[in-house]
Structure prediction request, 779 residues.
Amino acid sequence: MTEIKGGRPHALTDAPFHYCPGCTHGIVHRLVAEAIDELGVEGRTVGVASVGCSVFTYNYFNCDMVQAPHGRAPAVATGIKRARPEAVVFTYQGDGDLAAIGTAETVHAATRGENIVAIFIDTAIYGMTGGQMAPTTLPGQVTQTTPYGRDVKTAGNPIRVCEMLSTLDGVALAQRVTVDCVKNVKAAKKAIKKAFQYQMEGKGYCIVEVVSTCPTNWGMAPTDALQWLRDNMLPYYPLGVYKDVGEGSQ
Amino acid sequence: MGEKVLMKGNEAIAEAAIAAGCRHFFGYPITPQTEVAAYMSKRMPKVGGVYLQGESEVASINMVLGAGAAGVRAMTSTSSPGISLMSEGISYMAGSDVPALIVNVQRGGPGLGGIQPSQADYFQATRSTGHGDFHLLVFAPSTVQETVDMISDAFDLADKYRMPAMILSDGMLGQMMEPVVLPDPKPVEQDKPWAAKGHNNERPHNVINSLYIQPQELEDLVRKRFEKYRTIMQNEQRAEEYLTEDADIIVVAYGASSRVSRSAVDKARAEGIKAGMIRPISLWPFPVKAVSKAADTAKAFLTVEMSMGQMVDDVRLVVAGRKPVEFYGRTGGMIPTPKEVYEQIVRINGGVC
Amino acid sequence: MTLNILLAGFGGQGILFAGKVMAYAGMMEGKEISWLPSYGPEMRGGTANCSVCISDEKIGSPLVTNPDILIAMNLPSLEKFENDVVPGGTIIVDSSIIHKKVERDDVKTIYLDASSMAEENGLKGAANMVILGRMFAETSFCSYENLEKGLRKSVPARKADLVDSNLKAIGLGMKS
Prediction:
């Protein structure tokens, strides 16, 4: 039997989430908070909220929080980490923030090997603005701004972020997970905790990409969204470890 | 106080910032401010500080935002096109009350413009460095020594009022060497209970944020910030008044153009023309008191700028039609000569006396 | 007294350095001084020039547009700035490099075979200091003691062994 823990992690505030029904942000918030609790680092953690649906994360995490301009979370996190090297610093970014408007900041924070953790929520669509094409929108996928389906000839191809970042020397961990079932939630938790541990050991930039659902903008019931994720997103964005420098490395 | 040394304006900016307790510099190379970054890259490792070359001005200003939010004295330096790129981050800093120092060593614009000295970023610095209702503290030095002294003050005032401060310099002041005496070093850590640096399980979490989704909440906050601005406008105006008491013609000029204008005023005085100069040192807050007082006694004003006329709007707002306010400017990186300014003084003097 | 000096030549001739020594020497003498280089594309292989002001009074514009003294170390500089010199001013020409004569008759012109003099004395590259020595002899803008101090302040520590050769070159100019 799996033990079910009760109550909220201490690293989460009591504020109720504003997320839509079936959205997986809530699960990922909890996993991050559990990792912070288990490592006992809430008092020295600074989180960086980005722009998009997760903009309000500063209300949900109990650690100190800074809200960054759109796409700039890795630069803001760099500033915090360089100012306070003893702090544990993480960003929480969506696909538009991390892989479109903030691509430069992401790539350069990664290649510098900044000791920060990026929690990357990939839903293949823009949530906050109401369902437009994301850099990770799948070929053929219908969104508000790809009404005939994403035509890669005109709209370009999706970016596989973990694969791209895994080529950079500064990256200590690049892992893609999802939270569609208990088994995968557990694996995601393990990856997130490992990323925080790596930062504390000074290993470099760590990214955990969480392939996530957006039932509202996908126009699906939550369970259908989970199935759509399995059928469409996971084949294009395979789960796995794309880079891991290993426990003993520096 | 240290010994008197000869220093380039740009290098003095860097050394003065270190003396002011700054240990975090983030920037991106651009002429004519590059010596600031180069000097920092050499000095910061030796004083236990951080020099980091960002991938862009956009990234650099956000690194400053992060470091400032974490409670340290952080700065960046750039030249005109770089400020345009930084304007997003500056707006966020103003909106989340994060202090830091931003140096603009101005060059000609618009666009890529040129690399020679300019003062065409006055509007950008004092009116709208980014979107939304906000101000920066803006100071304009006219000598290398004044630059040094001002940087320390700018850090102090930025911390006191929790807002970004800007030093509006230009290519001439950045590149020139003059004797300076560096100030005694200040402490690196200031007490900033609001900073996001980890709550250490001793207080509720701090949030550094500029998002207020409820319009009433945002209006209340902006109004509160503007009350602070009013206090600053009352208390922090700075200007040098040079031979203004009995002056018929008062030149208003800041930074590099004030140096040219000082030579012109001296020449006019030597020729028997009662000329004087008001040199705004704080551009925001604009030295309303000094200009308004002069409007009671002077017969005319001449604003001299290395632009097509930007600060002249502020002079006209203060003088409010009481006296004529004329303008003379060069732009694109051209520097007016004392002779050109002198001729303007003579022309205006002929008209009003 | 105010002395506005414009030094001009090719990049690499030590134009900016000679200006810096003057400025430092003026500072040691207790004068107000400023030093302003040209910057930008011209310093990348082309011409370089530098404005130095030495004055008993606060210095206004540091940009010298009408020099009391023009030091010209190449032909384009002489052609560009000759007419800007104030009437009664001085032009010092490195005649090893510039074979053209100054056309004006209302200025004092000094033709100094500076580059050759330096080279003949094993001081290749120190023509700038030879000219500085001559300029110092002409103006006495500071004491010799302060000129030497200014030189020592201007030479970076890692090049301290160059102080003596520079002093020798200054001496050559003073005696010329």
Chain A has ten helices and seven strands. The CA atoms of residues 101 and 109 of chain A lie 14 Å apart.
